[in-house]
Amino acid sequence: MSGAAHRKNMTFSKCVLCPDGHTPANNRNIDKKSAVSSLDSLRGIVTILSKHQIMNSSDLDLILEKAQEAFVAMNAYALRRRVALMNTIADEIEALGAELVQTAMAESNLPEARLNGEKARTVFQWRSYAQAVENGYSLDASIDTANPQRAVPKPDIRKTNVGLGPVAVFGASNFPFAFSTAGGDTASAIAAGCPVVVKAHPGHPKTSQIMADAISRGVAKAGFPEGTFAHIFTETIEEAQALVSHPVIKAVGFTGSNRGGLALVEVANKRKEPIPVFAEMGSINPVFLLPGKLSTAGAELAKQYAGSLTLGVGQFCTNPGLLITEDNPALDGFIEALNQEIVNIVPAPMLNAGIAVAYRGNREKVIGQSGVELVAVAANEAADGQGAATVATVSGVDFLINDELQTEVFGPFALIVKCRNAEEMLAVTEKLHGQLTATLLATSEDLASRRELVAAIQNKCGRIIFNNFPTGVEVCKSMHHGGPFPSSSNSQFTSVGPDAIKRFTRPLSFQNWPDEFLPDELKNANPLGIWRTVDNEITKAAL
Amino acid sequence: MSGAAHRKNMTFSKCVLCPDGHTPANNRNIDKKSAVSSLDSLRGIVTILSKHQIMNSSDLDLILEKAQEAFVAMNAYALRRRVALMNTIADEIEALGAELVQTAMAESNLPEARLNGEKARTVFQWRSYAQAVENGYSLDASIDTANPQRAVPKPDIRKTNVGLGPVAVFGASNFPFAFSTAGGDTASAIAAGCPVVVKAHPGHPKTSQIMADAISRGVAKAGFPEGTFAHIFTETIEEAQALVSHPVIKAVGFTGSNRGGLALVEVANKRKEPIPVFAEMGSINPVFLLPGKLSTAGAELAKQYAGSLTLGVGQFCTNPGLLITEDNPALDGFIEALNQEIVNIVPAPMLNAGIAVAYRGNREKVIGQSGVELVAVAANEAADGQGAATVATVSGVDFLINDELQTEVFGPFALIVKCRNAEEMLAVTEKLHGQLTATLLATSEDLASRRELVAAIQNKCGRIIFNNFPTGVEVCKSMHHGGPFPSSSNSQFTSVGPDAIKRFTRPLSFQNWPDEFLPDELKNANPLGIWRTVDNEITKAAL
């Protein structure tokens, strides 16, 4: 087999498998013995899907050895080089031709317009995270100057954020660009100074390969080491575990199911050196429809809610799959209006056959629970692989005693919880698991009269929305995409927006360090011209 | 037994055990059923040490019910009230009379001057963390304004940090004030808006009770709910586990041994809802003595190093217990000078008998390893309960193959690793476990010629020190006290300095939220007058 074939599959500019393709290994940075033993114990064999070549544990060692070398190298570079790398990768993705979207359409059933938008979003992520590195926001640079006159002399202490080390990224099925190979996890890890090893999502392997090639071209053009980015195809859970278990890997980014995320967390916690897993595992995103709003805008809201619920065949981690409200005559009108919308939604193909089967199974499971009543379903029958919009209701009492009703039904399904009164609505809220988002459809008077409820809702979510819907996740500094467990494995960090970079950094303090050997962001002259906290004042001034 | 006795022991202003002492329970915020079942499974029985009253699992439930109520209440208060609470607690601690230091001297064997300094440090922590709340640094407030004209309308998104929920704190033996009941973990959790339940350290129970009473007086004077702070005495590991397992607890702060910290991490990970544990578990804090520095300042350095090593009978998590250097003739002079210092150090009482026994045992264990040679020991024999300063050497090769040589010997013990050359020194560095600190004793020429070594050292520690010693941990914004595993369980957060507050917060985003219902820090007018990131610019301006 030619080196060129390997090269393409592994998205290294040189192949790590062939003797003619790679630089001799430098083992210094890797504890080979413990790496191999942990891999052996997991029977880790990583295969290259596109050619089904067997990639054994020593191949993974070589990939991660390159990643470790790249980590050392890229942290010796000036920060502006990292910014240039990210902008170069953004250029490469932007320059990709129609093949990208056509391939993703074929692999994911997502429509062209949506994929064009997602491509633009992906490019924007790389550029805006590069901007956050350039303006120093991801560094949180701070300086406390010395005071030798103090009774106990005060040293000079300065702090910045440094990369954790090589990061393993597991992409999602529902965003083949923005949350997959070239998605937010990869962009934010690189922004943090961490090389990335992506496990390609099996749902869209060709799309992933096109993206991986674009990243590798960017890495080469920017003059970064080949190990800055690697892309591997694995077929079994054991292979994914081998990657997470490898001692070179220092953090994990994951977007997907609760089961998948928790499996990685378990592996990461069992390591000799446990590592953080930032898993965004989705949620049912409760919508609270309050009485004032219901009485004034019920029919219009029903239309908007149906639109958000069925957008993209409901295949969003922010899909509003639960509506909590009080049972009253106005609610009947809302449900009737919702039914009018839902019956007219034409069932559409889901991301893949497995997801469509799971949607039906989970939907039936919820509908089969005690007290659940079906109130609306798309009139056209769903063909194989399609998802039909469906709405059911249940009483607050039945919801309170049955945790199964909080199961995420990934797809266009909503459960409406009809509470008897405000007190029951509060009890239902306090029973909720952690959520990525919560939405209030309310008047100002509703908010003013339900402060306790609003506080309880805030305590359950990562983003709280007023008279809007959760199914757009804006890429910006103020976005928090994450939430209390189990919506994410770590509620303290976002996976969207430039603050996502901080997932892959840790603070490092320098005490009495000579100016010339400090990182640029901590030098007296402030050569980067960034905002810093100096003796508790925020300033761009030089010292 | 009188309500008053309970009251004092539990540091609630009202007793939770006696019918006459407490307000009727409001169960709404607690999932009582799951709380009790998880406690039962752990056979959790919490006892009040000072009176040896049995506190069963339902007593713990009551304490945590109060904590949850306080969490809800304190997050509805204006931020300035939290600042006032913290300053009031600082005043109460500052006002404590001679009894505090006298009690701590008796319980910990620490000298008066040290304890007076530690008391001032503790007060400073409360005040400076209050300042960080007041100036908004702990909130990271940011605003991205709406753009309704964009093709896909851009919503208004604003983000602040909110408290995680009630926090369990486990104090340390070696800092009875600054890292115990009223220490940095308690201060930073309250600063984050989280009620605290402290498990009193058994090594200094009376000291802890005096501090707890001061905090409770502060809570009452500031008008905060009684559940804002609770102080419990436990006797077994099961009791500590019951606290960490309780569903109301949302995070843990711990300072102490590796074994203790990891046990809590394990319990926290096994919960139905896993929670973060911020455990600072100590390290051996390598000192790198580079050739240029050794040749120019060997004897002076030996004196300074001996001082840092034996300060406080070596009982600091930042004690520099490992010295890594190159074997050359100048090193013999350094070791001889060090020996001169060490032999003259008079053995002093350690914190308690158990710690003195452990010191001897761990020291003997390291000395007994292959290739280890004793080179200096205090001339005066150590009595029971005392620790004698001790220094040993080992070759780089022996160190590389023996992980036991990285065991923390808590006390005035140092191991000198003699490397054959620069390459071996780099290999030894890369073999090191994660450390709180690393120190370079070096000239500028040493730094310039050893860039690879310096990068490798930075990768192993949370704070890197140049020609200074690690045994002072400055309380300031730029301090990072934490480091890669196993020196801490979470390298991304500090346990010293106002950034420690962020351990107990999570971001919360508000989308399209009405101005009047936003938290003050996110309101258009910026009524708190704090720095905020508005549309990617840092500013104090109103919108």
TrEMBL record, chains A, B:
Domain of life: Bacteria
Regions crossing the membrane: none
Entry-linked SUPFAM superfamilies: ALDH-like
Keyword Oxidoreductase: yes
Keyword Methyltransferase in record: no
One annotated GO molecular function: oxidoreductase activity, acting on the aldehyde or oxo group of donors, NAD or NADP as acceptor
InterPro entries for this protein: Ald_DH/histidinol_DH, Ald_DH_C, Ald_DH_N, Aldehyde_DH_dom, Aldehyde_DH_Superfamily, ALDH_KGSADH
Domain Aldehyde dehydrogenase as annotated: residue spans: 50-505
Keywords on record: Oxidoreductase
Protein's UniProt name: NADP-dependent aldehyde dehydrogenase
Organism: Dyadobacter soli
Upper lineage: Bacteria, Pseudomonadati, Bacteroidota, Cytophagia, Cytophagales
